[in-house]
Write a structure and sequence with these properties.
Layout (H helix, E strand, L loop, with lengths): L5 H16 L8 H10 L15 E2 L1 H4 L1 E8 L1 H23 L8 E3 L2 E5 L3 H12 L19 E5 L4 E6 L1 H24 L7 E5 L3 E7 L4 H8 L5 E6 L7 E5 L7 E11 L3 E8 L6 E7 L1 H13 L5 E5 L2 E4 L11 E4 L5 H12 L7 E9 L1 H30 L1 H24 L2 E2 L1 H30 L4 H33 L3 H35 L7
Parallel strand pairs: 1-18
Antiparallel strand pairs: 2-8, 2-17, 3-4, 4-6, 5-6, 7-8, 9-11, 9-14, 10-11, 12-13, 13-16, 14-15
Length: about 525
């Protein structure tokens, strides 16, 4: 351990200097960082500039907090209306007449078909509407059905939305609404907004730095604009040049004539092609949208159909055959993740149901500043107490451990800045906690050295044994803490995940500073001082 290769020392120092340097931008104001970025030459990579700082969370810099709730009754009414339209379409396709028309119930529809032959022809088609509830994955869908279809001997047929089907629709609606809200909040130009699910039917929106909740409420009330338009010739008139996601953001000519709008899109779900097993997106229109879409695809075979969301082309597939049934599929070289994202974007054309604000509040920057000052004070006090304890117990080696501890904190802040992580009040608590746990590794190493020295080993052997024999214990203890921190990050939300991020980074940097850096400093001390015994 006492033989240090120059290249390894240089490599360690460069890593530590670079890591600590990443924390420097946090000392600059946003205006200073922006001026540095604008004034830097274009040939300098942006990640080398001191412009990447941590984002302060809502509890530190203030901002707006809004809790929204999906209107469950409105969503179920919409689901029942769509079910009625689907039943009406099937009746028209099968040429089946009714006695008394289609009746609406609070959770579904009912119709009376007196002829047994008509019911035998109709029921298989109606049961196709009862889609199995499941997600796109390796194990396929579950056995639950979204719609319950019953047939009575007197010819009465009932289709009711099941509780599982209603909950599935709510989950999808929340997912869709989150995408719409995220796009709307991003338009504010804020950094690190927090948009997350709360329970089954609620969405929490937190926008740090925004002190105008009325503006946020106005933004949340807007809807995305989804359109189906044809890709046109660049030289043709009456076209818009819109950026295409398929072309890496390059603009392509799109006809201004709108074929179908997002309000006519009923659903879009990820699936697999039964022939090629490739990920695709299945979509479905209402009656009006199906008629328009069928006519357009019949008249434009071989042309590209552009799916435009907020004046951006998210996909432009080629029309290979007429799509007259009100549904179709989008295929291409998609991954499963890309298909899921595309399906969400297609469904994000408008808010799926009414949303009501159940809670709103504004956190002032003064409260956040008090939290920052309290966090700074707690961090400083914890650091000073730990340093005094280490120096009092281990003397010179305590000073070395204290140097490693300061580097450890700098690395955490630097990595958070590099990752663009959000610092919250629980995150500050995580830093304070890692300050105490960071020196645990040093304590294990030093106590092992002391024990080996008492057994009569030479100083070199004691130093070597301190690192080699304590290393396995250090790894085990850090791995167990890492497992707990990863579980917090995976299962937690909001401030809990902020705490987990800081704790994970603290565990990773502990191994670097408490083992590698400490070992290097002790080796340099031994080569310089040539001591005969431990300094503690």
């Amino acid at each position: 351990m006492l033989r240090l290769q120059a290249r390894k020392v240089i490599l360690v120092l460069l890593v530590l200097i670079f890591g600590c340097g990443l924390a420097v931008p946090n000392l600059f104001s946003p205006e200073t960082r922006k001026a540095i970025e604008q004034g830097a030459p274009a040939w300098i990579p942006r990640f080398l500039l001191p412009i990447h700082a941590m984002t302060l969370g809502l509890d530190l810099q203030g901002g707006s907090h809004v809790l929204l709730e999906i209107d469950r009754a409105d969503l179920i009414r919409s689901q029942v209306t769509q079910l009625r339209d689907d039943v009406r379409r099937i009746l028209r396709e099968e040429r089946v007449g009714l006695q008394g028309g289609i009746g609406l119930t609070p959770r579904g529809v009912q119709l009376r078909v007196p002829e047994a032959a008509d019911r035998a022809k109709l029921m298989p088609k109606l049961r196709e509407l009862a889609q199995p509830i499941g997600t796109l994955g390796a194990f396929g869908p579950s056995g639950n059905q979204s719609i319950e279809v019953t047939e009575n001997p007197d010819g009465l047929i009932q289709l009711n939305v099941t509780e599982a089907g209603a909950n599935l629709r709510i989950r999808r609606a929340v997912e869709q609404a989150m995408e719409v809200l995220r796009r709307r909040v991003d338009a504010l130009g804020t950094t690190e907004p927090n948009i997350q699910r709360q329970g089954l039917d609620r969405i929490l929106v937190q926008v740090p730095g925004l002190q105008d909740p009325q503006r946020l409420k106005q933004i949340l009330g807007e809807t995305a604009k989804l359109q189906f338009r044809m890709v046109a010739d660049a030289n043709a008139g009456d076209v818009d040049m819109l950026p295409s996601q398929d072309q890496g953001g390059q603009p392509i000519p799109i006809s201004r004539q709108v074929i179908v709008e997002g309000e006519d899109l009923i659903d879009a779900q990820p699936a697999f092609d039964q022939r090629t097993s490739q990920p695709i997106v299945n979509f479905r229109f209402n009656i009006r949208g199906a008629q328009r879409f069928g006519q357009a695809t019949t008249e434009n075979l071989g042309r590209q159909l552009a799916i435009v969301l907020d004046n951006k082309v998210i996909s432009a597939p080629v029309i290979q055959s007429p799509i007259t049934g009100g549904s179709g599929q989008i295929s291409g070289n998609f991954t499963v993740e890309a298909v899921n994202n595309l399906a969400i974007l297609l469904r994000a054309g408008a808010l799926p149901a009414k949303m009501t604000i159940v809670e709103e509040r504004t956190v002032g920057p003064g409260l956040g500043q008090d939290s920052i000052q309290a966090g700074k004070m707690a961090t400083i006090i914890a650091t000073v107490l730990v340093i005094l304890y280490m120096i009092g117990n281990y003397g010179l080696f305590g000073i070395i451990a204290s140097i490693a501890l300061l580097v450890h904190v700098c690395l955490i802040l630097g990595l958070m800045s590099l990752l663009g992580a959000t610092m919250t009040l629980p995150g500050i608590a995580g830093i304070v906690l890692t300050i105490g746990t960071a020196v645990d590794s040093n304590v294990l190493i030093y106590e092992r050295m002391r024990e080996e020295s008492r057994l009569g080993r030479s100083l070199v052997s004691a130093l070597e044994a301190g690192f080699t024999r304590a290393f396995a214990t250090i790894i085990d203890s850090n791995v167990t803490m890492l497992i707990a921190a990863v579980a917090l990050f995976a299962l937690g939300s909001g401030p809990v995940r902020g705490f987990a991020v800081v704790f994970i980074l603290g565990i990773l940097t502990t191994v670097i500073t408490a083992v590698t850096l400490t070992r290097m400093l002790i080796a340099l001390w031994y080569r310089w001082a040539r001591p005969k015994a431990l300094p503690f």
